[in-house]
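Help! Submission page says 'invalid entity' but I think these are all valid:
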Amino acid sequence: MSSPSLPLRQRPTQQREQLDLFRALPAEDMAPRDAQDLMAYPFFSLAKSRRTAPIDFRSGKITIRVEGTQEHGIATIWDADILIWAASQIVEARDAGIQPSRRMQATPYEILRFIGRGTSLRDYQRLKAAFDRLQSTTVATSIRETTGRRLHRFSWINEWKELADANGKPLGIELILPDWFYAGVLDAALVLTIDPTYFRLTGGIERWLYRLVRKHGGRQANGWQFDVPYLYRKSGSLAQPRDFARDLRALVAKQSLPGYELSIERWPGEPEILAFRPVPQTARG
DNA sequence: GTCCACTCTCGTATACTGTA
DNA sequence: TACAGTATACGAGAGTGGAC
């Protein structure tokens, strides 16, 4: 497991020795938490097939460039479930008065259960593939850089490894999160609780849209709205704009986002507008 | 009995391509 | 431009078996 983006003065083994180990907490009834920065910007591929084309996003002072390797591709929005698990663990520990750490240990089973996946061989293989994508995906962003001119570069996971006893019996996995992500999660103002049924959303665009809606719409009674071309830019999707718009219309018809109601508004000569507003929990089926 | 790792099969979403 | 078909990859779910 190598991490080419790390400076030579702090190699992974040295870094591991310097960090306390945080054993993951039992996750029953633990609320999923997501980092607001990850919800608002295109950090992940929305496609299930491997994407190697970089994500380039600029808006005002915000710059984001996400690159993957030919071997693994860019981390997907399903891979981000692991970061949601990590964020949830860190916030839960902090709130319970337990000292969390960027160096975390858990069993794959615990992670798979928390993020609502199966526990089949392929699920385990996918989880490991997700770790590889998160580790090999590099991000350069100006977010949280005060000048807006300098970029912070990191991978979603600095390093990870499988643990086993002397007989080869699996003992779980250990991973180290990047400082940029960890600092954002420790700042309570930069984390939002998300609906646990998020993990049941099967579409990439569907998942991305929920996170965006949750981030921007929050619980404002009047909701929020975006024009579709702007949403397309903000998604980082490789789909054609017309296909992306068609997918959004399908999601509006489906109304599958937990806690929100979507609608499309059209005005002559203007781009389509996607509007969303919170729905009272009791009104949902 | 429970936890965890694993097998197998089927369904679904995205991106791409072709056609009207 | 809009729509439909296809390839590919990945998620879902039921079930099995070993260790404790």
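Support: the input was valid. A stray whitespace character was the problem, and the output above is from the cleaned input. Residues 34 and 192 of chain A are 5 Å apart (CA to CA).
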